[in-house]
Write a structure and sequence with these properties.
The protein contains three helices and no strands. The protein has helices at about 5-40, 50-75, 75-80. It is elongated and about 65 Å long. By secondary structure, it is mainly alpha-helical. The chain has one domain. It starts with 6 loop residues before the first helix and ends in a 10-residue tail after the last helix.
């Protein structure tokens, strides 16, 4: 550890940024692609319900990650105004 920079903290932030910055959009893109593949074609090929279902699960997972992220950022505000101290919010 340097006197000015905490390298362990920098590594954790970098890893989390790569995970959220790359993995979540990739999961969303996979969901959209599976939905397109499973939708069938205008020429009459049937819909693939399994691919459609998996695509909805992936998109719902991304939506859940986004909601948890927003709630995590606003946890102190939510705890102050509602009394619900969630995700490690400070209790005043």
């Amino acid at each position: 550890m340097n006197a000015w920079i905490n390298l362990a903290a920098v590594a954790k932030i970098l890893l989390f940024g790569l995970l959220v910055g790359a993995a979540v959009p990739a999961v969303f893109a996979a969901g959209v692609r599976l939905n397109a593949i499973g939708a069938g074609s205008p020429s009459g090929s049937p819909r693939n319900r399994v691919l459609i279902g998996v695509s909805w699960v992936l998109v719902a997972l991304v939506l859940a990650v986004v909601v948890v992220g927003v709630v995590f950022i606003a946890r102190d505000f939510i705890g102050h105004h509602t009394g619900w101290h969630i995700l490690g919010a400070k209790s005043h």
